[in-house]
Amino acid sequence: MQDRLKNTANEVVMALLFASLLVIFLIVPPSNLVTFLCVITLAISLIVAITSDWQDLGVLALFAGLVSLAAAYFVGRSLRFGSVGAILLPLLWLGVLFLVYGWVVRRIIRVPDDRAFVVRNLYSRRITVAPKPIVLPVVERVIATIPLYKLSQQVNVEKINTRSGFNVDLIRVRIGYQVTDPLALLVNIRNKEGEQSRLAKERNQDLRVARNDPTFWETVLARELSHEVDDIVRKNIFENKSSVIATYDEQRETLATDVEERAEHYSKLEAQRVKRVLESQLESEAQRVTAIIDALRDAGVEITPDVVIRAIRATSDWMMENDYTLLPSTPPASLPSQPAAPRPAGDKKDNDAKKP
Fold it and tell me: Where are the domains of the chain?
């Protein structure tokens, strides 16, 4: 379908170019040079249109538009308006070209890399996946926008029955998936009309509008695969003839090795943590002892092992503020002793008078 659109665009561009060259050839006075240029231009444009891609086709369409403006100039000059017609008619034709270009651009839908457009041809009613790079709604109508990026989800399968009687309470299954055939997804999905209609009602959207939203298909795929995974897990677990105990015995050595490796790993981590804690404690204790000795020296206390041990114990028990035994019993030699205060004379007389 994309080739058909490209061929149609080629035909429109070549028709515009051929009509413009024909007008120029008929209006301009005949000469060999004009004929040669028209033929060469038409031949080169035809080759480019056949062998080029969409980008080259856009350049060719721009060139055809310029040639058509030149043809409009010659037509306007040939009319009775003269130079006014030579200016007015190309401007009118340029406005027509801009209107057509705007109409086409507004209706073109570009196909992104991360999603696929499922389209229905308005004439043949055929449903296909739109190839890149564009979709033209004039010819095709987008009926679904399917996500092509990777998706994942977790499915919880609960209360699983087994033949051995040892039922499984819960199995968590993590799945990743990606759509590779959008058309097959749209056609072959289970209970597509009922499930999609219910989901569209939950989203308060019309079904046609919801199908063009990639998140709608994400939810549809998640629900569909949840049912499929649930059925597969229950079927495989129930059809497995070996019991849970037999399965455990088969995997006992593997489980034991795994547990041993994990225990060894965690024990190494714990040993490293304890080592770091002890090193930090030893460093802080050494700094504390140094600070205690410096404080005792500043207080004038004689430094002996017994004094240091008592100071450490006192600071450890938070009793240093009540323990005054470490203070010196005699003042330092450098400080002179204070003389006794003299007694008042009146008191002395009274004392003498009381003697018998």
Answer: 2-107, 108-250, 255-316
